[in-house]
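Go through this chain for my students:
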Amino acid sequence: MVLVLIVGSLLGYFSGYFLIPPTTQTVTVTQPTTLSIERMLTTTVEKTLVTTEVRTSTLTSVVAGTVEMTVTREVVREMTVTITPTRNMTEVHMVVRVGETASLESYEFSATSVENPEYIKLGESYYMPHEGNKILVVRLRVLNVGEEAIRCPVGGLVLTTDKGSTYEEVLPWYLEPIPHENVGSDVVEHAMEYEVFPYLRLLRPNDYCEGDILFEYPVDEVPASIMFQPDPYTTIEVLLS
């Protein structure tokens, strides 16, 4: 009985694995450079099978008549089965420029503009870079071209400069706030109206999310590219110059 359960579970697992086609992702890009690296990825799945055996014993006494006594004993046996399927996955590194579109199976991604404002305006508040730093604002747009709703797949972007230094994205309130009494006409004139990117917003088919991504970097460095990974196997790099 135990052997039947174990064999049945293993057959069920393998039949499910082979019947379900592997996840594939079609990548098309508008005038970018695409580097593809074929890798063998190993996935280990551990399943624990628990079987319970119930035994019943009957004792009979011949001296005092017939007395039946039932003893129930549970025997629990655990077995861990490790299954390691191996599949081919393609790691893709897409390189695009500002204004170009990177198209994946379920969405299109583009950096539509890049600016270096002196000040940032968010709501009624104004911000400036810390001493010795500059501001870079990248406008991003993601369009859901699939048939199902998805979360806006943007986050964890990194800026790389000409010196090879990297800087993570920040939000306006991490900059230097400008006191209200110091907000003059020069600040108002040179401030950029900032729109926070709607991270993890639910996108229905043909819907899009759009907003600004902010970086702060030293004045003696030049922005070269921004990079992010929408999934573990895809990297999108946007060249800024």
About this structure: The two ends are 69 Å apart (CA to CA).
